[in-house]
Design a protein that fits this description.
alpha+beta, 5-stranded mixed β-sheet, 5-stranded antiparallel β-sheet, 24 helices, 17% strand, elongated
Length: 635
């Protein structure tokens, strides 16, 4: 084995020096690289990191804009905003969900149902979609949460504004309601405003239709915060810009009166201005309280509404469809006159009309009857006879001309426009021929004929005014409507017949004359049979006939036209005409009308709000439930 060659000291010094140079070069290169990077960050990316540092120091919060008001034709508020305190949770910012909810439960005295709802909605929520903990809080509750914010990440206490409907359920179907944005709605635009706590959008009715006008522009607030999120000071605030107000044609005082006057009945009242076509009231009751929906309606309350056989979630003025019954007879009379029927011609009413082996009943034995008297006493036999003579195919176009079976350009989410049948319609829908029996039924507003209360009010307004009025809900100046294509003397004769209904002896609506000096009302009663001709009534509410009444006033110079429908009210003279009488009285003598209403409400058990609160409480007791809140998505 060879011995290793000895290494001299000179060689050792050379090797060490070379290694020093290499290590030093690497260190120098690394130092230059690090210095270059630091210089790049300090100079080239200065703005970027300055902004990040500023974001850590400063928190920017959007301020939800106040919604525009709804006001009536005189500028009175129908929907406003009120200041409130609220607490929300932002799911993506929560660190300890169970601990946070438990702390909030103690601070805000939340119920078991509240906690269950919050946990359920947190599970369903996405990202930064806020989950409401509580709203309508007093300042002390708001302050208790605010001082604990550093230890409650994801909790967002806010002072802001919430939607408020002073009239409560009276305007539920008219305006709709607002609610928090759903996850699906947020995904469409991903606008951060949509998930800002306290921000709500229109969910139904006019609130939804005019969302873009009502929404306004968000404000913003900049505050300096510590690393743990505690607010140090407020830096700057840019106020929100409220949404634009929407002026409606509605007379809110009249509307509230009509809703209250419907009392415990299920139905609708529509009043139209005969000069312009403006809708002055479109009340549908029973209804829901939009304040409850906007605040997050309780599960129990929503079930109570759903299970109510009077269907308070349905807007009966636009979506309720009813056979018009004898309220159709003024329209039929105009068609008969236009087709050449002599109004002086009489028929003999012996209590009904025989077609083949079928007997079609009249409301009584009216004897010798002409057209005006047939309207006054509502003689089915007269209209059976004349309707069969001219055929319903000749009457149907007049029904459409006067507004039946039509959908109107109104800013509501949905309308049901009913049916004006004829031979072509029945052939297309049922693949069968129109029969003489169909003509008799349709001529007295039964059979396949279906209308909604708005259409009946418009029909009456067109007859009263002699003009092609168009219904409107948004206040604006309108041109004078064109005249109807019917002879003035024909319209006058029909109006005279309707005058006799209320103001002449033997008229079917004589009990509902206006209690006013110098002002008279013309009208037409109607009964829409639910179970078939001659079989109305019965003990069960849902099997009783509907009661209807159409009217206008004053008789000599018509200004207002109205339609009242009372579901299962048995008869128009009994249920609908008294409501119309009081509503029109309100237009001329509010004090007298309010005195009548107060007497009635004393017997009914209070105002709609008071009755709803009592009935809901009774329902909760009977079902053993409490008012657990639900989200709009649940509803």
């Amino acid at each position: 084995m060879k011995n290793p060659k000895p290494v001299s000291s000179a060689q050792q010094r050379f090797t060490f020096t070379r290694r020093n140079f290499f290590v030093g070069g690497v260190q120098a290169a690394f130092g230059l690289l690090l210095s270059g990077r630091m210089a790049y960050i300090a100079v080239a990316e200065n703005d970027k990191y300055t902004l990040k540092a500023e974001n850590n120091r400063v928190s920017l919060t959007l301020i939800p804009p106040r919604r525009g008001w709804f006001i009536d034709r005189y500028g009175k508020p129908i929907a406003t905003n009120r200041a409130d305190f609220r607490v929300d949770l932002i799911p993506d910012r929560i660190v300890d969900q169970s601990g946070t909810v438990a702390t909030l439960r103690k601070l805000l005295n939340l119920s078991d149902d509240d906690v269950e709802r919050i946990n359920r909605e947190l599970k369903q929520a996405r990202g930064f979609q806020p989950v409401q903990v509580a709203d309508g809080l007093d300042y002390d509750s708001y302050a208790r949460v605010s001082v604990r914010l550093p230890e409650l990440p994801g909790v967002s206490p806010r002072q802001g504004f919430s939607r408020f409907y002073p009239s409560g359920p009276a305007v539920g179907h008219l305006l709709g309601y607002v609610g928090v944005v759903s996850a699906e709605e947020y995904q469409e635009s991903k606008n951060p405003l949509l998930i800002t706590p306290g921000f709500k959008v229109g969910k139904d009715g006019l609130e939804k239709a005019f969302e873009q006008n009502l929404q306004g522009t968000a404000g913003a607030k900049r505050v300096e915060v510590t690393a743990r999120g505690k607010i140090v000071r407020e830096l700057a605030t840019r106020p929100d810009t409220p949404g634009k107000p929407i002026r409606l044609t509605i007379d809110v005082d009249l509307h509230n009166y009509a809703a209250r006057r419907l009392g415990r009945e299920s139905g609708a009242v529509v009043v139209i201005d005969c000069l312009t076509g403006d809708i002055l009231t479109m009340a549908s009751m029973p209804s829901f309280d939009p304040n409850s929906f906007s605040d997050g309606i309780g599960v129990t309350e929503y079930k109570w509404l759903q299970q109510n056989q009077r269907i308070p979630l349905l807007n009966k003025a636009l979506q309720g469809l009813y056979p018009p019954g004898s309220t159709l007879k003024p329209m039929v009379a105009i068609a008969l006159l236009d087709l050449g029927i002599d109004p002086a011609e009489t028929i003999f009413c012996n209590g009904g009309y025989t077609l083949g082996n079928r007997r079609f009943q009249c409301l009584g034995r009216h004897g010798t009857t002409n057209m005006a008297d047939a309207i006054k006493v509502s003689c089915n036999t007269y209209f059976y006879t004349m309707g069969r003579r001219v055929g319903y195919d000749a009457i149907a176009p007049v029904a459409r001309q006067l507004g039946l079976g039509q959908e109107y350009d109104l800013p509501f989410i949905s309308q049901r426009y009913g049916t004006v049948p004829d031979s072509a319609w029945i052939k297309k829908k049922y693949s069968k021929n129109w029969s003489q029996a169909d003509t008799l039924n349709a001529t007295i507003g039964q059979g396949y004929v279906l209308t909604n209360p708005l259409q009946l009010a418009l029909m009456t307004a067109r007859i009263a005014s002699g003009r092609m009025l168009t219904p409107a809900i948004i206040a604006a100046k309108r041109p004078v409507a064109a005249a109807l294509p019917y002879a003035a003397e024909h319209l006058a004769l029909v109006r005279d017949g309707m005058d006799r209904v209320v103001n002449a002896g033997g008229g079917t609506g004589v009990a509902s004359r206006l209690p006013l000096d110098g002002i008279t009302m013309a009208g037409k009663t109607g009964t829409a049979q639910v179970r078939g001709l001659g079989k109305g009534g019965g003990d069960a509410w849902k099997y009783r006939d509907h009661g209807l009444f159409v009217c206008f006033a004053p008789v000599n110079d018509p200004r207002y036209a109205a339609a009242v429908v009372i579901e299962h009210g048995v008869g128009g003279a009994r249920a609908a005409a008294p409501v119309a009488k009081d509503v029109l009285t309100f237009l001329y003598d509010r004090e007298k009308a309010m005195a009548t209403l107060q007497t009635l409400e004393s017997a009914w058990g209070g105002t709609p709000e008071e009755r709803m609160a009592r009935e809901l409480s009774e329902y909760q007791i009977s079902t053993g439930t409490t008012s657990q809140k639900t989200s709009d998505n649940d509803a």
